[in-house]
Each structure stands twice: as structure tokens, then as C-alpha cells.
């Protein structure tokens, strides 16, 4: 009876607070109920956490950054190109951390050996706002990525320098907020 009275009071409070506050309150209620119901619950172990396959990570993190880097340079938005280059480097690093080996090869070392030089050349071109240098370095990165795909027996995955405008919802022409 007391539990039903508390629930009824909480529902009236939710109705008085409005939608945003009500959502926050509901989340808090669910969390407090979950904590009360499972006081000895332990966080899931690393073995139970989902790790997307390399292909998913490539499609979700590497490929869009590769494309956005190109588009930013085409629009001469060098600040965004530098930002996206940093994101691409970090995405490659996280990929190597998530998968220390692939086909019995130290994956972070392979990624580094394939991407280090072209990424540095891209960085140099971005800093100099050098369109020709960027185009060459970007082509070198794309070629290196395809060589890596070949080496890992994923030769069916062939990337290229983008052609035409991006289908992205990103506005690459704005250089300042």
C-alpha cells in the first residue's frame, strides 16, 4: 500500500514538472529501482563487452573521416582538414588498440607502417595550404590503405579518392562558427 502511494505521488510529480523534468525524474526512478533491486550487481567484465569487427570500425570511423578530410581540403577549409586529420589518426590508433593482432600480425604496427608517412605528408600540406601536395599525399594514403587491405586478404575492399560532392550533411564551406 505504501509503495502504491509513493508511485502515485511520483506520477503526479511527473505530471506537474513538464516533459524534460519528467524524463529526468523517470530516469532517476529507474536507476534507483535498478540499484535497489540489484545491490550486489557488478559491472560487466571486459569479456562480455561488445567489440565491433574491424570492418564495422573501418566503415564507421575510418572511411567517413577519410572522405571528410578530402572534402575539407577541396573546399580549402584547412582548419577543418587539420581537425579531421587528427580524428583520422586517433581512429587508426583506437583501431590498433582494439585489435592488437590481425592474421598473427601486430595490427598497430601494420597500421603505423602504412599510414605514418602519408599522414605526415598530409599534415605538411595542410599546414602549407598546399592543394597539390595534399592531393598527392591523400592519393598516397589511399594507395597505402588499399595495400593493407591486400596484405590482410581483404583485397575486395578498394577505396579511392572521392569524386564529386559529398553526400554528407556536413557543411564544409563554413570556416568559422
From TrEMBL:
GO terms for molecular function: electron transfer activity; heme binding; iron ion binding. It comes from the Bacteria. GO terms for biological process: electron transport chain. InterPro entries: Cyt_c/b562. Transmembrane segments: none annotated. This is Cytochrome C. It comes from Bradyrhizobium erythrophlei.
